Recover the amino acids of this structure.
């Protein structure tokens, strides 16, 4: 079982790093966790340009001049958790909706027609609305339309993940939100999600079920982002050793305005976010790094090729939002409103190939 | 001429099609490389779609299309993908890749051998990507592989032929062509593999992420030709002791006194 180091110890380790530690980390071929700590530290800030250049080199060599593209489909915004920061939180008075199988298929059809081959199915955490049977039924309907179908829903058992894998689900994203155990309790006010350890063990259950890819991450804006980055490094390190045949990705959801008007507890600037992305790229040359439409187009354009490997595009975060123009009941408002075609045009203009298909549904047929 | 499964190849440089900035650049680089064999990841293309970007850019009249099973974790997945590729493309050529570790993408010897045995029975022309293990090369050859493709170093690392002491043994023992695949990061690496007697090399990352992929493709073509020519010309032995390139006449006595 993964043991998450004490969060304050992580913060302290990072704060003790000096310029010499940063330079040593930058000179190393294979970075260790203490190197990651140095690169996440304030002492690394003057080295941001250098980190960006190394991150770009590593990313280019490993992933080439390509950027993968995907879009989310929000299935349901029902949620039984009360999370202080989330637009779907149970006590927020928003219009609730759970798509029927037909409606979900219609939404998927719209994305398919727009050119998407990789999709991410997202929902709030409410078993009564979205359970394993519902997800399995959707997966079976969508598997022939898309090259890859990923999910971001409530944590499940290994057995349920295995059912979904056999139904055609490729990947699972489950973010810890914060690796700060104490803060976790204060922002997750009630609901199943309050169990820090069950959530922390979820990536291992996903990998044990045979899923091809597991996404981890922290919600930026809750606790010290530097320590979150180091905790992610620890988690990734442990997962890599335990599940050597699973691919891993890290996402960087930075808090956006949402219903409930929760103010971020920490301000994470674009420079901070960039430092986090470069540090993780240097630490793990092979990990997929995802930047979603939460970020604004100027930032996403600037970061292209410097470390991230996957972008979402043309996203709507409300259930049924693609089929209609009003986006009531969304989880958060996006920062980049461009369509897939517009994002592809930007990627091409920067000398990269927008990749919509990098998997094949045939991998997903169980033996 | 290089012959694999009865097909002749003038060019001994095979190209991968991944990581290019666009399909247009890819097509141009392939043309400049003079390659006649190109490999395409099945996961990246939609063979049923006539408008597929990559497939449209490749003129298959000019090249032998070598689909690969990149992404397959075990023999079953690779076999399934191979059959699909053949059904969609009509070609039996296959670059078999079974890489269960998504990080290093090193090939699984056990599953690769199992898949080769099955796919040969199913009538495929199988070119397995393998670690540079001489015994495995012999077993794959016995299983009916049309060529073997030992790696120089892990894929995408540009580290060159780090496995040369093993590749040399493979070349010495093989009855089928040996194509050095993966890790070739510079034209000098390609020349080195060819000087050793490799029948061909497969290059991708070094060309696709070069500052000028088209010029780099040309450079590789020249290096492969030079390396092959050197091999055929009979390379001098490497020795740890110096030996003069123009021996002094006194040492090679012309009166042959020892005969008397």
């Amino acid at each position: 079982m993964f043991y998450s180091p004490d969060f304050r110890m992580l913060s302290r380790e990072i704060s003790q790093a000096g310029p010499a530690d940063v330079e040593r980390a930058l000179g190393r071929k294979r970075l260790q966790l203490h190197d990651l700590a140095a690169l996440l530290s304030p002492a690394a800030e003057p080295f941001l340009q250098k980190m960006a250049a190394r991150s770009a080199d590593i990313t280019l060599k490993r992933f080439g001049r390509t950027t993968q593209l995907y879009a989310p489909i929000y299935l349901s915004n029902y949620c039984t958790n009360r999370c202080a920061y989330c637009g779907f939180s149970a006590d927020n008075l928003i219009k609730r909706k759970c798509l029927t199988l037909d409606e979900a298929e219609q939404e998927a059809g719209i994305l398919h027609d727009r050119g998407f081959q990789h999709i991410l199915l997202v929902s709030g955490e409410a078993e009564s609305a979205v359970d394993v049977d519902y997800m399995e039924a959707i997966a079976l309907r969508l598997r022939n339309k898309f090259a890859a179908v990923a999910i971001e829903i409530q944590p499940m058992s290994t057995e349920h993940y295995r059912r979904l894998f056999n139904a055609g689900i490729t990947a699972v994203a489950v973010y810890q939100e914060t690796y700060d155990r104490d803060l976790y309790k204060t922002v997750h006010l009630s609901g199943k999600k309050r169990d820090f350890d069950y959530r922390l063990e979820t990536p291992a259950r996903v990998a044990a079920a045979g899923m091809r890819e597991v996404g981890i991450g922290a919600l930026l804006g809750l606790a010290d982002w530097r320590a979150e980055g180091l905790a992610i490094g620890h988690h990734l390190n442990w997962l890599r050793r335990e599940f050597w045949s699973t691919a891993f990705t890290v996402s960087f959801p930075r808090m956006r305005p949402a219903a409930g008007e929760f103010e971020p507890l920490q301000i994470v600037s674009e420079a901070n976010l960039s430092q986090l992305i470069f540090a993780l790229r240097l630490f793990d040359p092979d990990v997929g790094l995802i930047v979603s439409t939460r970020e604004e187009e100027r930032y996403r354009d600037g970061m292209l090729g410097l470390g991230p490997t996957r972008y979402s595009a043309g996203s709507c975060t409300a259930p049924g939002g693609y089929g209609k123009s009003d986006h009531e009941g969304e989880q958060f408002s996006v920062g980049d409103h461009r369509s897939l075609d517009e994002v592809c045009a930007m990627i091409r203009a920067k000398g990269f190939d927008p990749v919509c298909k990098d998997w094949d549904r045939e991998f997903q047929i169980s033996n | 001429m290089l012959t694999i499964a009865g097909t002749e190849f003038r060019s001994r440089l095979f190209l991968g099609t991944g990581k290019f900035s666009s399909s247009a650049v890819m097509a141009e680089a392939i043309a400049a490389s003079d390659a006649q064999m190109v490999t395409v990841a099945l996961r990246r293309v939609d063979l049923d779609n006539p408008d597929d970007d990559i497939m449209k850019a490749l003129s298959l009249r000019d090249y032998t299309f070598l689909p690969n099973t990149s992404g397959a974790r075990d023999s079953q997945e690779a076999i399934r993908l191979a059959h699909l590729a053949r059904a969609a493309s009509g070609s039996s050529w296959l670059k078999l890749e079974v890489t269960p570790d998504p990080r290093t993408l090193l090939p699984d010897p056990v599953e690769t051998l199992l898949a080769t045995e099955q796919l040969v029975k199913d009538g495929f022309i199988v070119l397995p990507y393998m670690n540079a293990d001489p015994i495995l090369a012999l077993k794959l050859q016995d299983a009916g592989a049309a060529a073997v493709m030992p790696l120089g170093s892990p894929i995408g690392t540009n580290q060159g032929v780090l496995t040369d002491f093993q590749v040399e043994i493979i070349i010495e023992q093989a009855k089928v062509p040996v194509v050095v695949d993966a890790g070739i990061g510079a034209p000098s690496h390609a020349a080195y593999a060819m000087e050793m007697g490799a029948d061909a090399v497969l290059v991708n990352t070094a060309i696709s992420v070069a500052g000028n992929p088209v010029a780099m493709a040309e450079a590789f073509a020249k290096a492969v030709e030079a390396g092959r020519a050197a091999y055929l010309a009979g390379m001098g032995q490497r020795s740890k002791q110096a030996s003069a390139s123009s021996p002094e006449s006194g040492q090679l006595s012309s009166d042959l006194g020892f005969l008397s």
Remarks:
- Chain B has a mean pLDDT of 88.
- The two ends of chain B are 50 Å apart (CA to CA).
- The interface with chain A takes residues 18-23, 42-46, 71-73, 76-77, 80-81, 84, 100-103, 156-158, 205, 208-209 of chain B (CB under 8 Å).
- The first strand of chain B starts at residue 2 and ends at 4.
